């Protein structure tokens, strides 16, 4: 996965906002997940097709973080979403 990778949602999840955190339920697997902080922003951004680079760019506009740190965190988050079969 690199900055040019296009991210698309693979499955729709039931998502509820609770005090700034997102609780996601995957009814197919019966598992639930909590997302907080910048993960909320990434989840919101991937609701439509977007590149990894565009996600990084948007987050860097909102957070004071180095590009290296932001890139690492975004890719780590997206790889986890891919492992869970939520994105292509």
UniProtKB/TrEMBL annotation:
Pfam families: PqqD
InterPro entries: PQQD (IPR008792), PqqD_sf (IPR041881)
Protein name, as recorded: PqqD family protein
């Amino acid at each position: 996965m690199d900055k040019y990778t296009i991210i698309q949602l693979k499955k729709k999840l039931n998502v509820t906002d609770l005090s700034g955190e997102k609780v996601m339920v995957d009814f197919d697997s019966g598992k639930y997940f909590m997302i907080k902080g910048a993960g909320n922003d990434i989840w919101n951004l991937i609701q439509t097709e977007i590149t990894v680079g565009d996600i990084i760019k948007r987050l860097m506009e909102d957070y004071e973080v180095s590009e290296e740190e932001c890139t690492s965190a975004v890719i780590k988050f997206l790889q986890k979403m891919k492992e869970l079969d939520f994105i292509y």
